Amino acid sequence: MTEARHHLLVETHHTPDRLPACFGQARLLRDAGVESTVLLVENGVTAAGPSPELRACLDSGAGVLVDDYSLRQRGLGPDDLGDGVVVTDMDWLAGFLLDGDVAVVWH
Length: 107
What we know:
Elements: E1 6-11, H1 22-31, E2 35-40, H2 52-59, E3 63-67, H3 68-73, E4 86-88, H4 90-97, E5 102-106
Parallel strand pairs: 1-2, 1-5, 2-3, 3-4
């Protein structure tokens, strides 16, 4: 079995007092030379606002995406996101998962 060339960390939770661990995990993967992307869905999208942890994740080269439907359901829009966060949809996720060369961690 070969290692996946890309890791996708899907985060569904966020509380105001604690940022999700996915930002740090994605940064550590990038530091180890592994491609990584964070996808924030459901309540996880509320973690996409500007923060030092988000900035460090993006600066490491990891991608950070938010689900457009989850964003709208929480009354948020692109102006509420940190610089570098990309809005996407579940069609993107389905296509990415079908790639077959991706490891998915769903929080």
